[in-house]
TrEMBL record:
HTH deoR-type domain location: 2-60
Keyword Methyltransferase: no
Keywords: DNA-binding, Transcription, Transcription regulation
PROSITE patterns: HTH_DEOR_2, WYL
Lineage start: Bacteria, Bacillati, Bacillota, Clostridia, Eubacteriales
InterPro entries named in the record: CBASS_pafABC_assoc_protein, DeoR_HTH, HTH_11, PafC-like, WCX_dom, WH-like_DNA-bd_sf, WH_DNA-bd_sf, WYL_dom
GO molecular function: DNA binding; DNA-binding transcription factor activity
Organism (species): Clostridium cadaveris
Tagged with keyword Transcription: yes
SMART domains: HTH_DEOR
UniProt protein name: Predicted DNA-binding transcriptional regulator YafY, contains an HTH and WYL domains
SUPFAM superfamilies assigned: Winged helix' DNA-binding domain (SSF46785)
Length: 302
């Protein structure tokens, strides 16, 4: 549409000092004559755009045509751009367009692009990004979702939910949603969701908001305090997962970790992931369960 093209031309000119009619015609797949008419329309509408003819010429905006610099200082502008880059970590096309527009409007010629946020796993095929964007669109459009879900007990179930919020916690994305099968708020790990589909059924987000506030206020977890000893070669993993004040270096060179976690079966999987480089010191019931798991595993190989 012509209006969209005119708006985008303004954004491009805000971002670049100069561009040729030929470059614009190739971008929008129209003739240079159409671009010239667009420039005339913009000028008639009061946009301070002009053309320099001849070698080295092009289409330009008056340098002063930008946002009032007093609205945001340079540091605030950079903070906004960095926040948008972080939000665009899932490579949302609409967010990329927004980021391009904001960069142009802010006219940050000296902005250093010093951060690149990519939350997808190494070697990812992009399926996580697809699921994330489907979930996000469902939340924003107040549409229900259906999907298959694998829980921590390795059970595959079908779910129909009213999506409420995406949560990024401990290196993973989660969906907070009202589950129609369980008739209560639930948390789903997005990487365990399969065949995610946004369906036509609608809901009002405000109608379920209080359910989540109530759930948060009434949340109760069994907290367990773990005391673990790690071999020195595990320091890089400890720094990835634990806080600095939870790690103590012993005289032997090994590391003692004291940490509190909400209790669940996931604790055992986490401890076992360190293999022979970890020893459970406390509590005894966790130590006993680790022994039981290891003994049953060993039976498969002897």
């Amino acid at each position: 549409m012509k209006v969209n093209r005119l708006v985008e031309i303004i954004i491009i000119l805000l971002k670049k000092e100069k561009i040729t009619a030929k470059q614009l015609s190739e971008r929008f797949n129209v003739s240079t004559r159409t671009i010239y008419r667009d420039i005339e329309d913009l000028s008639s509408a009061g946009i301070p755009v002009y053309m320099n003819k001849g070698k080295g010429g092009g289409i330009l905006l008056l340098e002063e045509y930008t946002l009032d610099k007093n609205i945001f200082d340079d540091e605030e502008k950079e903070s906004i751009l960095i926040a948008l880059k972080t939000l665009n970590s899932t490579k949302d096309f609409k967010m990329e367009k927004t980021l391009e527009k904001i960069e142009g409007v802010f006219n940050q010629k000296n902005f250093i692009d010093w951060i690149d946020v990519d939350l997808s796993p190494w070697g990812s095929s992009g399926k996580i990004d697809d699921r994330f964007n489907i979930v996000k669109d469902a939340i924003l459009n107040e549409s229900m979702l259906t999907f298959e879900y694998v829980n921590s007990q390795n059970q595959l179930t079908y779910r129909k939910v009213k999506p409420f919020k995406i949560i990024f916690k401990s290196q993973s994305f989660y969906l907070s949603a009202y589950c129609l099968e369980k008739h209560s708020p639930r948390i789903f790990k997005i990487s365990r969701m399969r065949d995610v589909e946004r369906i036509c059924d609608k809901f009002k987000r405000d109608e379920i908001k209080n359910l989540f506030l109530k759930e948060e206020n009434n949340a109760e977890f069994d907290i367990v305090t773990l005391k673990l000893r790690f071999n020195s070669n595990m320091l890089f993993r400890l720094m990835d997962y634990y806080e600095e004040n939870e790690i103590t270096r012993e005289d032997t060179g090994k590391y003692l970790v004291t940490v509190q976690f909400p209790y669940g079966q996931w604790i055992y999987s986490h401890i076992l992931s360190y293999g022979q480089d970890v020893e459970v010191l406390e509590p005894d019931f966790v130590k006993d369960e680790i022994k039981y798991i290891l003994m049953n595993t060993l039976k498969k190989y002897i």
